[in-house]
């Protein structure tokens, strides 16, 4: 059963990461759409569906299954595991930040630039690199 749960965890993480990388990119384009326009309303629907239909469920599955795997496989021991969990907490913080930005766009209150969202788009990628290295290499 452990291997099946590991596979589920990897699938959930891939889905979560895809959404974390795509949502800020949608926002880059949404910034240029005039508030109230058809284009802006379409972006709002896309952002909401991505967040509620993929990103948040994938995060929940990643956390629930990941915590079980950490307990069952490693007894929550290992410096690499603690560092990984810290980075995943950072990823979850990024998730929460993006939830707030989706709410801002939904209420036509975005105050940030496309450049800001381009930069923010790199945060999940950097965290992902650290997490993958920790999981595969287990350097400590």
Question: What are the main properties of this structure?
Answer:
mainly alpha; single chain; 140 residues
Please describe what this structure looks like:
With 140 residues, this protein is mainly α. The chain has one domain (2-137). The protein contains five helices and no strands. It has helices at residues 2-31, 38-74, 79-106, 114-120, 122-137. Helix 1 runs parallel beside helix 3 (79-106), helix 1 packs antiparallel against helix 4 and helix 2 (38-74) packs antiparallel against helix 3. The longest helix is centred in the middle third of the chain and has 37 residues, at 38-74. The radius of gyration is 17 Å and the shape is elongated. The mean pLDDT is 98.
Brief synopsis:
This protein is mainly α and 140 residues long. The protein has helices at residues 2-31, 38-74, 79-106, 114-120, 122-137. The chain has one domain (2-137).
Indicate the proportion of strand residues.
under 5%
Number of domains: 1
Please tell me what the overall shape is: elongated
Please tally the helical runs, counting DSSP H or I stretches of 4 or more residues.
Answer: 5
Which whole number gives the mean pLDDT? 98
Computed CA radius of gyration, to the nearest angstrom: 17 Å
Task: Give the uncertain stretches in residue-range form.
Answer: none
Task: Quickly give the structural class.
Answer: mainly alpha
Tell me how many strands there are. Answer: 0
How far apart lie the N and C ends?
Answer: 27 Å
Largest sheet: none
What is the H/E string?
Answer: HHHHH
Percent in helix: over 70%
């Amino acid at each position: 059963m452990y291997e099946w749960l590991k596979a589920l965890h990897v699938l959930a993480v891939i889905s979560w990461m895809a959404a974390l990388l795509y949502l800020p990119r949608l926002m880059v384009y949404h910034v240029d759409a005039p508030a109230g326009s058809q284009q802006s309303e379409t972006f709002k629907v896309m952002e909401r569906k991505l967040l509620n239909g993929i990103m948040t469920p994938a995060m929940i599955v990643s956390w629930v299954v990941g915590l079980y795997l950490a307990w069952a496989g490693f007894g929550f021991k290992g410096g690499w595991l603690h560092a990984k969990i810290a980075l995943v907490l950072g990823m979850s913080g990024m998730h929460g930040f993006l939830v707030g930005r989706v709410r801002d766009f939904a209420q036509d209150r975005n105050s940030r630039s496309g450049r800001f969202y381009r930069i923010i788009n790199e945060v999940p990628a950097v965290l992902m690199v650290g997490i993958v290295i920790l999981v595969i290499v287990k350097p400590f």
